[in-house]
Amino acid sequence: MTETIKSDGVRNMARTKITDVAAKAGVSVATVSYVLNHVENQTISEETRAKVEEVARELHYVSNRAASSLKNGRSNLIGVVIPQAEPGKEILLSDPLYGELLSEMEYKARRMGYHMLLSGLGDDQDYSGVVRNRLLDGVIIVGSYPAEHLSDLAELHAPVVLVDACISDARFHELTADDRAGGKLATEYLIGHGHTKIAYVGEKSEKGSAADKRYAGYADALAEHGLSLERDRVYHGKNSFAYGEKVAETVLAHPDGTTAVFAASDILAIGLMHGFALRGVRVPEDISIIGFDDLLVSRMVSPALTTIHQDIAAKGEKAVDMVLDAMVTPEKRQSETLPVRLVERDTVRRI
Amino acid sequence: MTETIKSDGVRNMARTKITDVAAKAGVSVATVSYVLNHVENQTISEETRAKVEEVARELHYVSNRAASSLKNGRSNLIGVVIPQAEPGKEILLSDPLYGELLSEMEYKARRMGYHMLLSGLGDDQDYSGVVRNRLLDGVIIVGSYPAEHLSDLAELHAPVVLVDACISDARFHELTADDRAGGKLATEYLIGHGHTKIAYVGEKSEKGSAADKRYAGYADALAEHGLSLERDRVYHGKNSFAYGEKVAETVLAHPDGTTAVFAASDILAIGLMHGFALRGVRVPEDISIIGFDDLLVSRMVSPALTTIHQDIAAKGEKAVDMVLDAMVTPEKRQSETLPVRLVERDTVRRI
DNA sequence: TTGAAAGCGCTAACAG
DNA sequence: CTGTTAGCGCTTTCAA
């Protein structure tokens, strides 16, 4: 390793490269490559192998992935995209759900020998350029993606897994929770506790989105139990704590009263709880509430939130499994729906 | 773009490359490179420039970063490391703080033309191999990093910014919040509200860590106000909701009573609140509590948590600024301490 | 069982 | 103002 001056004037240790290892070990670069990459069908004498490995260790050799990527077109990189709520702001910020999901994906990817490239995405932006530029081996998109750029994604060589996407598109693999069943479960639980004046609070969102399916489940349950879906008990807004807090007032103002709320996400439910508390309305004594997601924080609020649990850890891990599988069998389209279940805590009372 | 069969048998569209653009535009590859990279000091006729840009667009040309990285040794990639709490589990999972921080860093990096490589890290692992393998241009390490591998990091060509690190090491740039001042501020606020029996709950952690400095601030405030630091009012445990919930009982069991708690993190404070609620102890009527961090969730709990605010968004943005600056002026060591401030909400009462 | 050598696509020094 | 060309470090085919 000799001291060199780079053209930009930065003083740098020249990196050990495969030729250095080859020279010191007295073999060719090919042999070094074979040994270090554990190339199958390439028989190497035990002696040579040991020698190469020893020298590589001695020289602290680390391969240059730019070179191998250039050669073989792969990057060992999975791109994870979390589209942004607001243009230019907040990516995973607004909902802790994303942090939990990401965390799991990163851990799984790492165990499988991949790294994770994390990106937010503005409303109108296209990710396919990044995929090509960085030679990403696979892509996971969480949430919605601008419809006008879906085709560009589809033309990529890299498999794309859509997690909780609004659209169902045969060109992509998809992973969701059983949102409709969960919405139904939540609503039936309220009905089972004697509630009939049940409000729905959820994100105003595209057809086919998770929120939309949760709403459908709400409608299913009402219909099945002979309750009519009253439009004025349905509140649509942003999927945020702030909106929940704000809409609490509107919910309380319903002329006929409301005894229970199904919030389509925990973050909304927690906002509602806060809004109720602000107005001296007690949960669950005065009004019951059930959420959806089972965030880590949902058991931290007081009272602890009754909610529909989705296994976020499993979702993150599964998403990575799916891209990796798709890299091996690109022709097989994968579509998975993860089960949900009810978690009884303290925000619903029997009336 | 012709259809090719790769050696692995995968059918693939051959990528448009710079030679394709050059050929179609009737110029050399050098010219294309100059135009597309906006190379300074390289005067290109407006006509040529326009032609090249047009052709590049027509052909949907996207450069191959493996090739440029190989050539110039840079990746336009910033590595962000979040050491794991438990070996093999939970990276940013346990504390929503990380999600907020990450989010900001990613957004800033993206605006600056970089991508973010996110990694967790086991207790004994070394990141320097990744930095060399991926030619990372800069590294941000959040939290603690295994001391035995610090030297490897220091030898890298890439600048390293330690965010909230335990150690202060001249070989690295560092970014922290003013934890000690914050700890003092919190404790003084309690004292100012008439409290004298003030407990401290915080993570048992290394000397020099954020938690340690917050504790020092607590001690400062007590000393300055003539209160003695009673060891049996100091509770050390894991920085988690669960520990806060559990330790609530111990805090309440103090023979002389405790009227206020300074929790060294919001996640602990919220755990404590929950633990108190479980035991029918009201906040702030029966016991006051103040936290540290001002997480998004801290205003979501009821009552909303009084806490020391640190500007997590600013911290994330600053961290990225610092690595980018360090890439330009590697010789200048940067060390920044961000201010904190008190946010009065509803968990401390005057006695 | 090993080695020689041809690129992968791009940048930038240098020549024109 | 534009083009030629020598690599960057690695993988892999083919020959020995």
Describe this structure in words.
- With 351 residues, chain A is α/β, with parallel strands linked by helices.
- In chain A, helix 10 (241-252) packs across helix 11.
- Chain A has helices at 18-25, 29-36, 46-58, 65-72, 96-111, 128-133, 150-154, 179-192, 210-224, 241-252, 266-278, 312-328; strands spanning 3-5, 11-13, 77-83, 115-121, 138-142, 160-163, 173-177, 198-203, 234-237, 260-263, 288-293, 306-310, 335-338, 340-343.
- In chain A, the strands form 3 sheets. In chain A, strands 4-3-5-6-7-13 form a 6-stranded parallel beta sheet, covered by helices on one side. In chain A, strands 9-8-10-11-12-14 form a 6-stranded mixed beta sheet, sandwiched between helices. A two-stranded antiparallel sheet of chain A has the order 1-2.
- Mean pLDDT of chain A is 89; it is low at 1-12.
- Chain A contains 12 helices and 14 strands.
- The first copy, chain A, folds into 3 domains: 2-63, lambda repressor-like DNA-binding domains (434 Repressor (Amino-terminal Domain), Orthogonal Bundle); 73-176 and 313-337, 3-Layer(aba) Sandwich (Rossmann fold); 179-311, Rossmann fold.
- Helices cover 38% and strands 19% of the residues of chain A.
- The interface between A and B is large, with 61 and 61 residues.
- Chain A binds a DNA duplex (16 and 16 nucleotides) through residues 7, 15, 17-19, 27-31, 33-34, 37, 39, 42-45, 48, 63-73.
